[in-house]
């Protein structure tokens, strides 16, 4: 969410009515999230000036660890230097820390491609935004899910119940520090996640949703403490419930 919002902001800056705008003091502390969107808190160090040049050798974009040769345009400006400066700063301050860690395994290669392409400045801001929107579409639609055996048949579902809230086993990347709370596309995906975790014996699908509209599911190591909840469905492994009375 943070990276996509940043890319949308940089897309606007690259195509603003004033021309391409560079953020000269590009640091994480210069941004804040407002209603799920990233905003710039200080525009004092923004510039629409692009480096003047006479030849391509005048257009080197330097960073502490990398340098990029750019083209000198026919109007004597270093072509796209403001856009590329913003994009590489987004890569080194945001993408490298946020993109590799929390996506479903099937989407990680696509995010890795974005990371590598922006780190080498092979993508401009237009290509970067398209790549992010493709990943978002796959994520929201569930098209990233690989064909696999149907596992939900191995679970008993109880509508109108949930387990008592409390500290349980933890997983990554959980929305709660007390247990294992993950976003899912469907109960079938939740069953696959539960089967992949040795501690998991049940999971609860709630009405709570993430910014992408995906429901949250809480994965539990037990299922015995059930309480009524009209907005939840608890799924219990048949192997865990064998011999027990529901």
What profile does the largest beta sheet have?
5 strands, antiparallel
Determine Rg (CA atoms, Å).
23 Å
Shape descriptor: elongated
Strand composition percent: 15-25%
**Under the CATH scheme, which architecture of the largest domain would be assigned?**
Orthogonal Bundle
Distance between the termini: 40 Å
Count, helices:
6
CATH fold label of the largest domain: Transferase(Phosphotransferase), domain 1
List keywords for this structure.
kinase; 246 residues; alpha+beta; 2 domains; Hepatocyte Growth Factor; non-membrane spanning protein tyrosine kinase activity; two-stranded antiparallel ribbon; PKDCC kinase; 23% strand; 5-stranded antiparallel β-sheet; Transferase(Phosphotransferase), domain 1
Structure description:
With 246 residues, the protein is α+β, with helices and mostly antiparallel strands. It has two domains: 1-144, Transferase(Phosphotransferase), domain 1 (Orthogonal Bundle); 152-242, Hepatocyte Growth Factor (3-Layer(bba) Sandwich). 30% of the residues lie in helices and 23% in strands. The protein contains six helices and eleven strands. The strands form four sheets. A five-stranded antiparallel sheet has the order 7-11-9-10-8. A hairpin with a 4-residue loop joins strand 5 (60-62) and strand 6 (67-69). It is elongated, with a radius of gyration of 23 Å. The two termini are 40 Å apart.
């Amino acid at each position: 969410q943070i990276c996509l919002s940043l890319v949308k902001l940089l897309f606007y800056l690259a195509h603003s009515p004033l021309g391409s705008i560079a953020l000269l003091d590009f640091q994480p502390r210069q941004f804040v999230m407002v209603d799920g969107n990233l905003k710039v808190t200080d525009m004092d160090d923004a510039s629409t000036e692009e480096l003047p040049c006479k030849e391509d050798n005048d257009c080197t974009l330097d960073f502490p660890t990398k340098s990029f040769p750019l083209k000198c345009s026919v109007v004597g400006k270093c072509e796209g230097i403001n856009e590329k400066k913003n994009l590489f700063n987004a890569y080194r301050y945001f993408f490298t820390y946020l993109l590799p860690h929390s996506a479903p395994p099937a989407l990680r290669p696509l995010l890795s491609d974005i990371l590598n392409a922006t780190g080498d400045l092979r993508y401009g801001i237009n290509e970067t935004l398209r790549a992010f929107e493709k990943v978002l579409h796959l994520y929201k639609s569930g098209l990233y899910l690989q064909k696999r055996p149907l596992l939900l048949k191995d679970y008993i579902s109880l509508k109108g119940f949930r387990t008592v809230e409390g500290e349980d086993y933890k997983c990554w990347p959980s929305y709660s520090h007390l247990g294992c709370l993950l976003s899912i596309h469907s109960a079938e995906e939740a069953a696959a996640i539960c089967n992949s975790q040795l501690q998991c014996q049940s999971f609860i699908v709630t009405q709570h949703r993430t910014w992408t509209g995906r429901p949250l599911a809480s994965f539990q190591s037990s299922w015995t403490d059930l309480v009524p909840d009209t907005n939840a469905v608890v799924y219990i492994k048949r192997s865990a419930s064998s011999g027990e009375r529901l």
